[in-house]
């Protein structure tokens, strides 16, 4: 058990770091993305929502993909009790790097789109 304690702590830390992105996307970003959907006024005075642009659709897909990350980390955590390869420091480092790369990609893309919207709205 003593050898497993650092692995358990590492997986729990990775799991806690994996949760904010899907929660943020679910509660805030998804609504903001939907608010950026182009809506045009029709001749009869009603409004018609149009298809979402591809750059916003990609952000929505990344947010939906972020919901998979905590489940993958939790599954690898459970498997680490039976498979020694999931409990190795190299495996933990690989998981952390993949998680960090995904989170950085999602955050950078969100900030880029937010900045473009602010610049577009200011002009």
What secondary-structure arrangement, pairings included, does this model have?
Blueprint (H helix, E strand, L loop, with lengths): L4 H14 L1 H16 L3 E3 L5 E3 L4 H13 L2 H11 L9 H34 L1
Antiparallel strand pairs: 1-2
Helix pairs in contact: 1-4, 1-5, 2-3, 3-5
Protein described:
This protein is mainly alpha-helical. It has one domain. It is 72% helix and 5% strand. It is built from five helices and two strands; from the N terminus they run ααββααα. Strands 1-2 form a two-stranded antiparallel sheet. Helix 1 (5-18) packs antiparallel against helix 4 and helix 2 (20-35) packs antiparallel against helix 3 (54-66). The protein is elongated. The termini are far apart.
The beta-strand count equals 2
Largest sheet: 2 strands, antiparallel
- List SSEs in N-to-C order: HHEEHHH
**Spatial extent as radius of gyration:** 20 Å
Overall outline: elongated
Low-confidence stretches: none
Structural class: mainly alpha
Domain module count: 1
In the sheet with the most strands, the strands line up as 1-2
Query: Could you tell me how far the N terminus lies from the C terminus, measured between alpha carbons in angstroms?
Result: 61 Å
The averaged pLDDT comes out at 83
- In percent, how helical is the residue content? over 70%
Classify the beta-strand content into a percent band.
under 5%
So how many helices? 5
């Amino acid at each position: 058990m003593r050898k497993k304690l650092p692995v358990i702590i590492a997986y729990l830390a990775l799991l806690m770091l994996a949760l904010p992105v899907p929660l943020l996307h679910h509660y805030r970003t998804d609504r903001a993305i939907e608010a950026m959907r182009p809506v045009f006024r029709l001749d009869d005075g009603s409004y018609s929502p149009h298809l979402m642009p591809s750059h916003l659709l990609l952000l929505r897909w990344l947010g939906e993909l972020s919901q998979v990350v905590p489940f993958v980390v939790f599954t690898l955590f459970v498997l680490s009790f039976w498979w020694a390869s999931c409990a190795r420091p190299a495996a933990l480092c690989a998981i952390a790097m993949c998680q960090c790369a995904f989170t950085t990609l999602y955050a950078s893309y969100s900030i880029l789109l937010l900045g473009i919207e602010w610049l577009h709205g200011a002009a």
